[in-house]
Amino acid sequence: MQHLGKTRSAHHPDHLLQTPDTFVRAPLPGMRKATAIVHIGPAGGARFTQYTAEFETGGTLEPASVERFVYVLEGELTAGQRSLAVGDYAYFPPSSSEVLSAARPARAAIVEKPYVSLGGASAPALFTGKESMVNGQPFMGDDALQVRTLVPADPAFDFAVNTMTFQPGATLPMVEIHVMEHGLLMLAGEGIYRLGEHWYPVSAGDFIWMGPYCPQWFGALGKTPAKYLIYKDWNRHPLAGETCS
Ligand code: UGY
Ligand code: MN
What we know:
Bound molecules: (2S)-amino(carbamoylamino)ethanoic acid, manganese (II) ion
Low-confidence stretches: none
Strand content: over 45%
Order of helices and strands: EEEEEEEEEEEEEEEEEEEE
Helix content: under 10%
């Protein structure tokens, strides 16, 4: 708790840094014995929503009407016959009927958004995966920065979710400025995140939203690797979803 009005959290039109001292918890419709920390949504300028769901023993989350991606942060969740441990993830197409439940306390990062169809095709089917089974790939040739791609490379998916693991001292090789937006959860370690014209110290537990074209760069500090989970909209033409009159 911070009683003197100080925080590392910051909100600007093109980015949000939300640190755990500023998290506010409230249940969402469809939650029982669970609560949500809503990190970002349309009210904050994003075209998706991302929240951390915290389940008590016996907690449940009803299916969503939109597509949903779940990455388990702590404990274990089940969806029908499937069980998801820490580092496991699942994709639920819109109107999937699967309820998420927790036999014991658990936490998960959840991204939800309306599905943007490609040529009228329906959304991909439910799938689950294990991050531990995904091979890391060097990012732009740098072995000290490993990317793990959690969503299959299939144009039917309108978003991507990756983990990025930086050895101490590793950095993004350039300041990125791109049309895609990001939801980012720091999973481990620490470093400096450049967002627009601001440089922020960040560490495990922090959430960042980057709007389209937000200049972004990260450098890992400390003596242990820094790792984050990162969402981006993907595989769609920039005019997809626009109506021309
Ligand atoms: O995929 C990405 O755009 C990623 N390299 N961005 C980031 O880490 N801020
Ligand atoms: Mn990026």
